[in-house]
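Review this:
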Amino acid sequence: MDLVPAPSGENPVKTPMVEVEAVDVAEQLNAEAVALEEVASEFGSDSDDSDGDDALSEDGEIIQFMRDDQLQDVPGACTLEEAMAYRKRLHDIGKAAFVEETLVRETVTAKKLCTAFGIKLPEFLDGAPDEAYHPLLAIAISREFSRRPKLSQYNTIDDAVKLLQEAKNIIVLTGAGISTSLGIPDFRSKDTGLYSKLAHLGLSDPQEVFDIHIFREDPRIFFSIAKDILPTEKKYSPTHGFIKLLQDKGKLLTNYTQNIDNIEANAGVRAEKMVQCHGSFATATCVKCNFKVPGDAIFDDIREGKVPECSACVESIATLKPQGLKRKRSSTGNQKDRKEFEDSSDEDDYEIPTPGVMKPDITFFGEDLPDEFGQRLVHHDRELADLVIVIGTSLKVAPVAEVPGILPRNVPQIYISRTPVSHTDFDIDLLGDSDVVVSELCRRAGWNLEHHMIPADEKVDITPVEGYESRHVFKVVGA
């Protein structure tokens, strides 16, 4: 079940890390069970939820979401203008009335309406009757209705600067984009991201490199690319310096980082001000005996593309004598008879134990996030935060991607990244290299953000995005 905005009095559920844009249908339907029942009843469906689950999850089919700029490429999809109108209407009149006005009155098909809410039409439903799209639409409607609406009073650069100056408890949510200026690749950039370089591994999906089940089956896959994301030097970017500056000014409530490079610590962000949502390379743990070591103890092996072995396991195995080893069993499951032992070597006679693999303490897809994540967010930060700044992340990995929706809707939110997101409504979008954006914000706020990567004479041009009052593009003059 994904981490979604909890009703009053309830807490979000602790969940494994999953990809928001590729959610297993059965899991997603369970997460949206209430909405599915409510909307399905409006559709007049006489089938139960379990039937819908089975049909939709058959052959491991998945729900995929698409961006607004992809609508024009989908035959029969809503136009962007139609999609925006349907979304607004849903928020204005509520789910039940919206379903009555659209599907019950047959003013639009469920298939087309799915596209209005960003659902990529799955191939396995090609040629199916329109009713087959109802469960997908139920998910889409519930997902859209739970979205936080933009606060209309915040739109300009001056608004963003004033929010920075006046805020006292800022949550900063960061992703891989804040480290790319240091030469560390992000994951999803088209040509330079890590996922774009993994075709040679023969995986059906590049994110399988970080799938815990595949790691357990063959850790060599992960360690073949781990060196590319391994922190190498004690350096940090201007954006990391910006987070430290917020801390120094007593404004940083918590930095929730999805990054595993531990660079925030290099910048001086204190451990008590940071939650490493997906773990980090700072430590590593044996998958067999749970022996833990500092992360740099296995860095040499990682840099060479080797699978690091547990030294504690190696020592334990070295002390074992043949009588302490398990005898191999025959193919029938019985121990070998005496004649077989007489004809075999010692190596064949016993199962030789192998040392465990040292896994960096990063959170893989399919693993639970640290307890601290949910506990701190729900029981501490949610009631204190007065500003949210999301930097360098496309918010595609749940449950961290759901953080903006969990916080009180009256808390202003600023988004800083190269490209906007369409599945979350921020109050102000500041688009461009995060280092450039934060340095310009600091200049306008009268703050001194010192960093050798920020030129003393840097001038930044800011242009509004046509059609968006609150979206602005930052670009260094002459770049």
Notes: The CA atoms of residues 248 and 269 lie 9 Å apart. The chain has 19 helices and 16 strands. The two ends are 45 Å apart (CA to CA).
